[in-house]
């Protein structure tokens, strides 16, 4: 079992930045998938960024060059640095962890609102 808690969301003006955190507890040693997703009302949850099994980083086209995913070496904490935010980035952001063949663990989400 893995428990995830996101934080760092809030209200920011267009062009601003936020850094989201995802803190994990429980059995993270077998985790080989770590990523960020987001969801707006009436839409499906969409992929934002992830670490591949090989450890490289992968981003949705809409956030490339603006967002950066990072993590601690112990996999207990993952971050999403978001720069040059636009209203289109307004959403609830979720972190996700998974091990091969296992369930996907989700956090409760953190609201990001980009508005002037």
Distance between the termini: 40 Å
Helix content: under 10%
Strand content: over 45%
Compute the number of strand runs.
Answer: 11
Characterize the overall form.
Answer: globular
Can you tell me the residue ranges where pLDDT is under 50 for at least 5 consecutive residues? Answer: none
| Succession of helices and strands | EEEEEEEEEEE
Largest sheet: 7 strands, mixed
- Overall pLDDT: 95
Q: Report the total helices.
A: 0
Can you describe this structure in just a few lines?
The chain is 0% helix and 53% strand. It is mainly β and 116 residues long.
Outline the fold blueprint.
Layout: E1 2-7, E2 10-12, E3 18-26, E4 33-39, E5 46-51, E6 57-59, E7 67-71, E8 77-82, E9 91-98, E10 104-106, E11 110-114
Parallel strand pairs: 2-11
Antiparallel strand pairs: 1-3, 3-8, 4-5, 4-9, 5-6, 7-8, 9-10, 9-11
Structural notes for this entry:
With 116 residues, the protein is an all-beta fold. It contains no helices and 11 strands. The chain has strands at residues 2-7, 10-12, 18-26, 33-39, 46-51, 57-59, 67-71, 77-82, 91-98, 104-106, 110-114. Strands 2, 4, 5, 6, 9, 10 and 11 form a 7-stranded mixed β-sheet that branches. A 4-stranded antiparallel β-sheet has the order 1-3-8-7, with no helix packed on it. Strand 5 and strand 6 (57-59) form a beta hairpin. It is globular.
């Amino acid at each position: 079992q893995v428990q995830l808690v996101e934080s760092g969301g809030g209200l920011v003006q267009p062009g601003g930045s936020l850094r989201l955190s995802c803190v994990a507890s429980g059995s993270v040693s077998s985790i080989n998938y770590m990523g960020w997703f987001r969801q707006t009302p009436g839409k499906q949850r969409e992929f934002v960024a992830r670490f591949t099994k090989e450890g490289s980083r992968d981003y949705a086209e809409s956030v490339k060059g603006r967002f950066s995913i990072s993590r601690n070496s112990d996999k207990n904490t993952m971050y999403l640095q978001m720069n040059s935010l636009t209203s289109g980035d307004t959403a609830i952001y979720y972190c996700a962890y998974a091990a091969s063949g296992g369930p996907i663990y989700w956090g409760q989400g953190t609201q990001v609102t980009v508005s002037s």
